[in-house]
């Protein structure tokens, strides 16, 4: 029974880490990364569609993204969606492709992004702790219902805590790497 609880807790903690990876992927560093565009949706015949599903996104160099839509009629829509997003990049449309020059980040903007990263990391830690709380609640319920002994319950809670510590350490490590990446010039 406790094995099922541990498996569920680990799965929930992994979801928190996956969400953190996704959030970090959207944080813009000083170099071009096609994943920056993942959250931007373009109205394509009445359906909000991600850019990467309607165009080829290329990185010819570290400071440029080139978006080449398969249907040229959607160029203006992609351009408008990028302008409306919070990327802070002005696209240049030449009628065939859209170029996104990625400007170097200012020190102030880097610090803002690090703050955002810390917020994402804290959300991931909270998700991990919530998984711990849920697992401990299930263990307590089993103990109250006399389905497991107090010793087994204590051991299970210790295992849950070790798992929590491991995942929180992973979150901290990911944050440290992302911080270094964002602050790198």
Model description:
Responsible for the release of ribosomes from messenger RNA at the termination of protein biosynthesis. May increase the efficiency of translation by recycling ribosomes from one round of translation to another. It comes from Slackia faecicanis. The protein is 58% helix and 15% strand. β3 and β4 form a beta hairpin. The chain folds into two domains: 103 residues, Ribosome-recycling factor (Topoisomerase I, Chain A, domain 4); 68 residues, Gyrase A, domain 2. It is elongated. The longest helix has 38 residues. α1 packs antiparallel against α3. The strands form two sheets. It has a four-stranded antiparallel sheet, with helices on one face. The protein is of the alpha+beta class and 185 residues long.
């Amino acid at each position: 029974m406790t094995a099922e609880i541990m498996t569920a807790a680990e799965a929930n903690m992994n979801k928190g880490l996956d969400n953190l990876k996704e959030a970090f992927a959207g944080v813009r560093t000083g170099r071009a990364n096609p994943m920056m565009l993942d959250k931007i949706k373009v109205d394509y015949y009445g359906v909000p569609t991600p850019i990467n599903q309607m165009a080829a996104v290329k990185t010819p160099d570290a400071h440029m993204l080139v978006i080449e839509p398969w249907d040229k009629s959607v160029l203006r829509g992609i351009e408008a969606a990028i302008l409306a997003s919070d990327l802070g990049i002005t696209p240049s449309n030449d009628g065939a492709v859209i170029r996104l020059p990625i400007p170097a980040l200012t020190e102030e903007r880097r610090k803002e992004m690090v703050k955002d990263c810390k917020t994402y990391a804290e959300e991931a830690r909270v998700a991990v702790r919530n998984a711990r709380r849920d697992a401990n609640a299930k263990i307590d319920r089993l103990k109250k219902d006399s389905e497991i002994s107090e010793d087994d319950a204590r051991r299970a809670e210790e295992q849950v805590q070790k798992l929590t510590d491991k995942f929180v350490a992973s979150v901290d490590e990911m944050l440290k790497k992302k911080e270094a990446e964002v602050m790198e010039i």
